[in-house]
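Appendix B. Raw example, untouched.
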Amino acid sequence: MTDFMENNEQRERAAEARHEKDAFVSRVSILVAMLAVVTAATSSLENTETAATITGFSKAVLAQDKATDQWNFFEAKSLKKNIYDVASAQGGPKADDFAKKAAHEAADQKDLQTTAKSFEKQRDEALEDSEKHEHRHHRLAIAATLLEIGIAISTIAIITRKHWPWAMSAILGVAGVATAVSAFI
């Protein structure tokens, strides 16, 4: 809502400048309009990267939960295998059955271990992806801030009719764009 109101104010100033036929104010107003468009795009990208950061982290947590479940099943199979190994070692009429059950539990353990490691790999990939998006988010937040400050300083140029605030806002605009681009490099 604030961006909408701010953009409306900038459009009103641009319209006023057209009516005044002041070339300097017109140039500053054009810069303000350009900065407003780039700021809106940068803010939108920042929001997208924020959502991707959260989504990636959530995927990592889910994958870790699944890996933990598999490791718990692995441990349960390990306990059962050991119990069957002990029972088989005691001998008796069911010793062969216990040995087969121990071998079956051991085979299940290998599958569970493979699955758990696969989930851990998914977790690591999701965390890496989340960190990449978080890095972009931080850069884009800085870029949007620089651009917004540039817009504010442009307003000073319009009010005071001085060139230095206009130049400063252009420099901040370039710095904001460069920072936004650096988020994706």
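End of appendix B.
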